Amino acid sequence: MDRVWQLQEAKNRLSELIDAALHRGPQVITRRGTEVAIVISYAEYRKLKQAQKKLTDFFRESPLAGVSFERDRGAAREDLEL
After folding, report:
1. Which of 10, 19, 21, 30 could crosslink 39 through cysteines, CB 3.0-4.6 Å?
2. How far apart are CA 81 and CA 61, in angstroms?
3. What are phi and psi of 79, to 5 degrees?
4. What is the Cα 36 distance to its own chain's centre?
5. How would you classify the pairing of strands 27-31 and 3-6?
6. Are 46 and 23 in contact (CB under 8 A)?
């Protein structure tokens, strides 16, 4: 479960903040009531990074990769004013 830490508290209790991220999950840091950062374990960070793909790989692996699309060359809309 995420815990919210004020920035000053996070600075003063950094070791506890890191332990919480390791054992209880992401920890949110706020500054003047606004969420500004999150602390996660390195293992969680690696999982997130490995889950990312390059956009070109995403399109290459898409079920639509071999589909050919054609532009509709029908009559232009005359009721459209620019």
Report:
1. 21
2. 40
3. -90, 5
4. 14
5. parallel
6. no
How far apart (Å, rounded) are the C-alpha atoms in residues 52 and 41?
Answer: 17
Could you tell me if 5 and 27 are in contact, meaning their C-beta atoms sit under 8 angstroms apart? yes
Whether this model's pTM surpasses 0.90: no
Give the chain's largest Cα–Cα span.
68
Tell me what the mean pLDDT of segment 55-62 comes to: 81
Residue 23 has pLDDT above 70, yes or no: yes
Amino acid in position 43:
A
- 65 contacts: CB under 8 Å, gap ≥ 6: 59
List of residues 6+ apart from 13 with CB closer than 8 A: 5
Q: What residue type is 33 in one-letter code?
A: G
Domains in the chain (CATH in brackets) are: 3-61 (3.40.1620.10)
Do 28 and 2 form a contact (C-beta atoms < 8 A)?
yes
DSSP state of 62: S
